[in-house]
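Reminder: ligand-aware prediction takes two inputs, not one.
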Amino acid sequence: MKAALIRRPYSLDIVDVDVPSVKPGEALVKVHACGVCGTDIHIYEGAMPWARLPLIPGHELSGVVVEVGEAVSNIEPEDKVTVDPNITCGVCRYCRRGRRNLCPNLEAIGVTTSGGFAEYVVAPVSQLYKVPKGLSLEEAAFAEPVSCCVHGFTRLSIQPGDDVLIIGAGPIGLIHLQLAKRCGAGKVVVAEVNEKRLKLASELGADLTVNPSEERLSERVRQFLSGKGVEAAIDAAGGSAPLDLALSCLEPGGRLLVFGVASEKDLWKIKPYDLYKRELTIIGSFINPYEMDNALNLLASGAVDVKPLISHVIGLDSLEKALKRELPNALKILVKP
Ligand SMILES: [Zn+2]
Ligand SMILES: [Zn+2]
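Here is what comes back for the chain with zinc ion:
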């Protein structure tokens, strides 16, 4: 089968490899669509220490089951499925205490083991979710990023009426925007430097869009909210600059979700006094421990509409261009291997 292989940073080859064999408890899935994620770019650039090279990346995927191993009863060939890439051990302290995303034995399809930028992928059936009726396989490929957003969003515990700021209007920011609008937020402000993305944020329901390279965000937000800041902010960009921007817009007692993936080497300078005096809460969020079902419900009901987020559908041959950020006006790029 054809697959995209990263042997070392900044090197991706399209190679011919054997179709993986199926062990008991596993299924072989013919990949229909696999989304390109910021994580894939970090892996390509050698900035994801968690990744294990050489690697076939790709962790946001959907497809059709073509073969199942022994001891499999819940899934059968021809089932349309999406894949939760994050495989946890089930026996460690974290897995047993309801925090399995913190499992020290975590493996992830497309990060530590072969992923979806290939014609076929093999996965334990515990990782497969049947695609609800009416949902396309293209949309189902978003189940993983939506589930990660649901996890972060839940941790941020937005209260009805909270005004919310989202920094970054890439696919993740635009998913968070829809969650905020659907989950009872008051006003939702989206900050983004790319004007095309800002326009899409407006179309998807943002009450105010701001380009922080042209306006002082904290002033614009307070002007819009009659003098106050936001109760909750989500960094969907990654890195210290967006986090500073978010902090500058928070109300006293506000909460900040660190969702965007920063480079592992980034540092962030904050004033402890500021946290103390304004009683701010900073919340981390990592992957999607129990949210795949909810994500599929949100997608199937249309509460989260990901169709407008698909900017490109490409073949494996164009994947390296995508990872080099060379595709113009990219939002979510889907690869069809
Ligand atoms: Zn991802
Ligand atoms: Zn574990």
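The chain is about 25% helix and 25% strand. Residues 88-89, 92, 94-95, 100, 103, 105 surround zinc ion (ligand 2) (CB under 6 Å). We will return to this case in the review session.
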